[in-house]
Inverse folding.
């Protein structure tokens, strides 16, 4: 485990990064390679220090994705859309069996499943 001073430095780095998140969207498009390197560096630091891993997708991102899929504003998406969204997010593997109850997937179900699967991936680190 790193010394306390190193953890404090890491936490300060994370705080600084959070302050610049508003400009981060622009960085992604202007310098995608550097942006991805910074993301990987943050993951490495978090893993080495024992600090909680950064979460890159929040509920507003999940809501935006759901709204794009639910273009008719029914309040639910089809099972096929749900499965494809999980694939797109890297949260579904081929051959995995998902249960389709025939009623569609609501936003709450979608959000809960995305959050659950994301946490499972992070806990593997």
């Amino acid at each position: 485990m790193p010394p306390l001073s190193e953890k404090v430095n890491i936490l300060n780095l994370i705080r600084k990064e959070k302050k610049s998140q508003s400009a981060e969207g622009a960085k992604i498009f202007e310098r995608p390679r550097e942006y991805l390197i910074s993301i990987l560096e943050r993951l490495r630091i978090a893993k080495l220090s024992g600090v909680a891993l950064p979460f890159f997708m929040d509920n507003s991102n999940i809501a935006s994705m759901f709204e794009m899929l639910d273009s008719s504003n029914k309040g639910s998406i089809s099972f096929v859309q749900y499965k494809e969204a999980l694939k797109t997010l890297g949260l579904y593997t081929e051959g995995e069996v998902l249960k389709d109850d025939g009623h569609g997937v609501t936003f709450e179900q979608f959000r809960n499943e995305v959050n659950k699967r994301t946490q499972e991936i992070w806990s593997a680190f």
Notes: Helices lie at 4-19, 21-30, 32-49, 59-69, 79-88, 107-123. Residues 9 and 15 are 10 Å apart (CA to CA). The chain is about 65% helix and 5% strand.
